[in-house]
Amino acid sequence: MAGGGGGQVPSSMLVGKVTCGAWIRRRDGGAAASRLLVLYGRAAAASSPPLLDLLAFDASKSALASEEPLLRVVMGEDGADAPRAIAVHPGGDEFVCATAKGCRLFKLVYEEFSINLISRDCPPLQSVGPQRCLAFSTDGAKFAIGGEDGRLRIFQWPSLTVLLDEPKAHKSFRDMDISLDSEFLVSTSTDGSARIWKLDGGAPLVNLTRSADEKIECCCFSRDGTKPFLFCTLVKGKDNVTMVLDITNWKRIGYKRLLAKPISTLSVSLDGKYLALGSHDGDCCVVDVKTMQVSHLSKKIHLGSPISSIEFCPTERVVISTSHQWGAEITKLNVPADWKVWQIWLVLLSFFGASAILFYTFFKYTTLL
């Protein structure tokens, strides 16, 4: 059962395509903590306005528990109100949704048998215009947006105190990410340039070097907590490669051709083990970061349409990918399964049991002098 903070649309009505998607997981205690949710933004259709859909996810089946949403909320009356991007706060209780007009803040209220979605007034975000990039810091204390107009804004969260407002950060934003330690922000421009920003100081730190025939496009930081890397896709003439930089000095460590075609989006799993690349013709590959080898490849998952976003599930080896033509796809990755906690304990208990049997056998059948 769910309630909402906006107009309701009958679930049977023909709705628009998914324009963006995100995972929601709560980090605090309670029954809802183990529950994964999927949030879809939908464009307007002939018979329905722009929408937000909240759906339950069944981890055991690696699929939506039902195509029927738990909650469906109207975003507005015209196409400019359609969701373009979603950033979920690490706490899982609120998220920001970007539209052509600006950004809207929503709060999720979890009750024993229901979920309510409440739209909150947020003047600093509501009239900022179309934004290409949204990102919360890992600690949830900062929020950054990068606009089509090239303007970068960094806010303290939740007070929304402005830490940086740089109108000419880029020609127009292409991509953006915040480092695991919430210290740095990387941003790329549609002209191929890339900059590093100090998040606390709210100031530019360095411009990433590139040659005249190079364009830096997508970017994301490593997430495993041990290797301080920055991953960027690089167009070098007619070649498309993924390069790795050391964030202690912002120097290139090397680069590799992982998906030999133009890359449209780049993402990393929350545990930092896998890197996902989406192409302009709808292919998706997932790379083992430790070996930098392709572990999973899905061809034409979006049937020739550029993949606009890929987001890893917080707890399972599953991704949501979106494209403007085909909407959203949920894909279970063909990668080695992670060890569960109970499996580790079972192995340890097996070792203890085997050791006890060996000791018993030794002392029973050995004559002590």
TrEMBL record:
One of its GO terms (biological process) is regulation of COPII vesicle coating. GO terms for cellular component: endoplasmic reticulum membrane. GO terms for molecular function: guanyl-nucleotide exchange factor activity. WD repeats lie at residues 181-207. It is a single-pass membrane protein. It is found in: Endoplasmic reticulum membrane. It holds the Pfam family WD40. InterPro entries: Sec12-like, WD40/YVTN_repeat-like_dom_sf, WD40_repeat_dom_sf, WD40_rpt. Keywords: Endoplasmic reticulum, Membrane, Protein transport, Repeat, Transmembrane, Transmembrane helix, Transport, WD repeat. The chain crosses the membrane at residues 342-363. Its main location: endoplasmic reticulum. This is Uncharacterized protein. It comes from Brachypodium distachyon (Purple false brome). The gene is LOC100830872.
